[in-house]
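PT: before anyone asks, these are the final sequences, not the draft ones from last week. 303 residues across everything. Please model them as a single complex and drop the result in this thread when it's through.
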Amino acid sequence: MRGAKQNRRWGMVGVIIVTLATAFALTSANPVALGVRHQVDIQRFKFTPASLVVAPGDTVVWVNLDIVPHTITAQDDSWDSQTLQTNDAWELRITEEMTGDYFCRFHPAMVGQVQVKLD
Amino acid sequence: MTKKSVVITLLVALVALSSLSWAKSKSPADLNDLEIAHVAYTADSIDIRYAHLALAISKDPKVRAFADTMIRDHTIVNEKALALVKKLNVQPQDNFLSQTLVKQSDALIEEMRQLNGLAFDRRYAGNELSYHQAVNNLVGKTFIPNIQNPEVKALFEEALVIFKAHEGHAQHMVNALRNTHARR
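LR: through. Structure below.
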C-alpha cells in the first residue's frame, strides 16, 4: 500500500517536471518580441519627426521641450496624452489600429503622423 | 532800442530756450530693453484680458478653446518674463507704447462688451488676428534686433514662435467664422 502511494506521489512530481520543462522549451523557442522605442520631440510648435513608421509593440515617447503646454491627441480621439507641461514625456505602446494623424488640442495646426507597419 | 532793453530781450530769449524740453523721439526702435520688456508684458496682459472677455460672452466652442489657449500661453510667457527680470534684478519701465496699447485696448474692450453671438465672435477673432500680426511684426522686426541682453533676446525669440502660432490659429478662426451663419 505504501509503495503504491509513493509511486503516485513520484508520478505527480514527474508530471509537474515534464510540464515545466515543456513550458520552458516553448518559451525559449518563441520569445516575446521587445518593441523599439521611438522619441518624438515637441519643439518650436513642431513634432520632430513629424511622421513615424512603427510596428505593433513599439513604444513612442513624446517629450515637450516648449515652454507652453501641448497635447498629443489622435485625430479620431482614440488616444490622448492629456496636458504635457514643459519637459513632460508621454509614452504610447503601439497597436495595429493606431495608424493615423494626431495633433495638439491647444494648437491644432501642430500635426504629426504615426504609420503602423505590419510585417 | 536801449542797451538795457536789448540785454533784457536777450536774457528772456536765453531763458525761453533753456526751458524748452526737446520732444523725446517716440519710436518703438528707441525703446531700451526694460521698456521693451514692459511693452511685451503689457501686450500679453491685454490679450489675456480679451480672452477673458471672450470666455464671458462667446458660446462658440472653437472661440472659447482659442481664448483658453491665449490665457494659458500668454500667462506662461509673462511668468517667464517676470522670472527673468527678477533674475536680472531689474524693473521693466513704463513707456509711451505700453500706455498707447492700454488706451487702445480699453476702447476695444468697451466696444466688444456691447456685442454678442456671431458679431462678437467675428470681432474678437478679427482683432486677435490683427493684434497678433501687429505685435509679431513689432517683436520680429524692431524689438528682437534691438534687444541688448542675450537672455531677454532669447525669451523674445521663443515667444515670437508662440505668437506666430497664435496668429495662424487666429487666421483659421477668422476663416471659419466667415463661413458661419448667425442662428435665427
